[in-house]
Amino acid sequence: MLREDAGSSSRAPAQGRVKQFSLLILLALHGSAHAAVTVYGIGGVQNPTGSQSGSLPVSTLGSTEWTSALGAWNDIQLQAPPLPVPLPPTAFTVALANQAEHVTNLSIPQRGDFYGFSIEMSVVEQVSNSFIQVPFLNLLATVADRAGSVRVRVGGNSQETATLVGSLPNNSMIEKAASAVVSNSRTYPKCELLSTAQAQIPALIFTDELLYLLNNVSHLVSAKWYLGIPMNDTSHLRLQIAEQADAILGDNVLGYQVGNEPDLYATHGSRPPTYGVQDYFNEFGTVVDGLKSDQKITEASTKLVAPSFQGKWKAEDLWATGYLNAYAPAIKTISFEHYADNNCAAEFPDGGFGAIKNPQDVFPEYLTHANGQKMVAPYLNSAALAQQFNKEFMMFETNSASCGGFPGVSDSFGSALWAVDYGLQLAYSNFTGAMLHIGGSNVTYNVSPPTNISLFQKFTVGPTMYSTLFMAEALGKTNTSRVVDLTTNEFTPVYGIYEHDTLARVALVNFMTEQNGVGSYQATISIGGGLTGEPNATPASVKVKFTFGPRFQVDGRLIGQEIIKEIPCDQTANTCTIPVPAPGAALVFLSSDAQNNADSVVTQTYSTTSVTNRLATATLFPSAIAQSNGHRGADFPLSGTSQGGETTAKNLPPASLQQTVFIIWARAMMVFG
Q1: pLDDT tens, 111-135?
Q2: Nearest-5° angle of CA 630, CA 374, CA 7?
Q3: Would you say 409 and 77 are in contact if contact means Cβ atoms under 8 Å apart?
Q4: Is residue 349 part of a domain?
Q5: How does pLDDT run across 324-375, given as a tens digit for each residue?
Q6: Of 400, 456, 477, the residue nearest 606 (C-alpha)
Q7: DSSP single-letter state for residue 669
Q8: Cα 113 to chain center, whole Å?
Q9: Residue 333's domain is classified under what CATH number?
Q10: In Å, how far are 115, 293, 413, 528 from 318, measured between CA atoms?
């Protein structure tokens, strides 16, 4: 859900509550070349320094019991944190050199598809077997159109127990094997601590239809995939997924993850309590040798993704074993998995996770530049090693909080801002990508939690989906963008982005929420000139655009109308002043090329009319993609994987919900609708 301020604290007028997420888009004009600014903010930012919020459409919901019963659509609203003391400057100058050669600490060149998505293998059937789910396809298309491609990981915990077979009854693509269930002390996705509660990871049986499905998606949108090779039993390797994927998907597979969070194997009972980094080193070598000796494998043996530690083991302990030297030819991507926090105590009160964290208390921790810096700090040494070994370096699974996220935090506009700053900080720190995890109907951090609200099944769009598009446009399609962190205050992050070694874009974030007319800021950008020894390069004017759109009526396409407001710049003074709402984020395009390299052209979208009659059409429950992290017993259907979670069909939103809740979004003058 998207909120009307960073803390989701405001209430709409008496006629109904409104969840809002706003868009300001600024286009800068420079002679015949057009520059542009995109500002992402909240409802009412048309008057960023006043106390009166803008006029917004208001509507009422129909039956909304599900919005409070299910985490993905909860109605929890938190109070926005108070303004910092002392208050950061609300007007400051950002002076930038126009050429990369005059800039220190620039990142390595980054891809536009930096942010991708992580989906649990056990529920990938949600993307469909008979029908490719159109909303998901459209969401992928919106990213690929801006970034040039989109990366999706299919795997996770359930990949460890997966087996490819020739066929399944009733032409099924995936089944959970009731006779082969792995007992496991882990209770839910990515809990940082060991729980005493019991969970089960079902053994999965799947056919090559899964691989053909992924290949079909790749032909419709420029989607590339990461798959997982089982490592639960290295005495009896199961390499069929690599054999078949090499043949069916070919170059559409970017990599094969070997071992999902092996540092938690012993904790979860799948290895002896003494299992350590040297044991993992040896087992990984067994898999590498098996791949190399398998004559049916043509590419997988040099595309491995590892070690994917969750954080219990230190990477430096593994590097000390000679791991990278020993397996460098096999490893394509060095990977880790980490969430900003965990909400495991609330999800499992008797699980031994300590005191329950109050979302209101933790919310301010997300609204600061220090959060992203803290998250990347443990990996900076490994990032440098990745460059030395010429390897990609990815945060292979991440989001705001494990164990379902924090209601009111993970699904707030503040979360979108957090993900923007976090993503840019990862890029600046020389990560080469990050996979945002898609959880379930009892998970609040979703990129796109599914829902039924019509004769066809739809998705809702979470705040981090918009962060993904922001990142795609910030980095563009050329795959040459280099990022520098110019932040001087933790509440007002600033990044410069150089493309082809020339300044192309500037990203501005405002973590503050306006209170009594205070909180928004003005950043005066100066390009070249001054002490840089370069000619002035500030555009002549900027234009601001606004848009509206519905929250739940989503099939993954962008819709909306734009309203444009022009803001002049001062080329004589070589300055352009960009207002950034509180809270909000702005993306400033400094040339027509910079804008063209990030802009959508005409996104190919896909109709939902192929599934029109709910009673006559066999469909899959959207919650299948939802609470998925491989942790559910085989006695549960494929639509859920988390033990004890409420994700069956009866928990889904009503099929004919009559409502329109308006949000306000960002960038391309459109929202998802």
Answers
A1: 999 999 998 787 666 544 445 667 7
A2: 75
A3: no
A4: yes
A5: 999 999 999 999 999 999 999 988 888 788 999 999 999 999 999 999 999 9
A6: 456
A7: T
A8: 11
A9: 3.20.20.80
A10: 27, 25, 38, 45
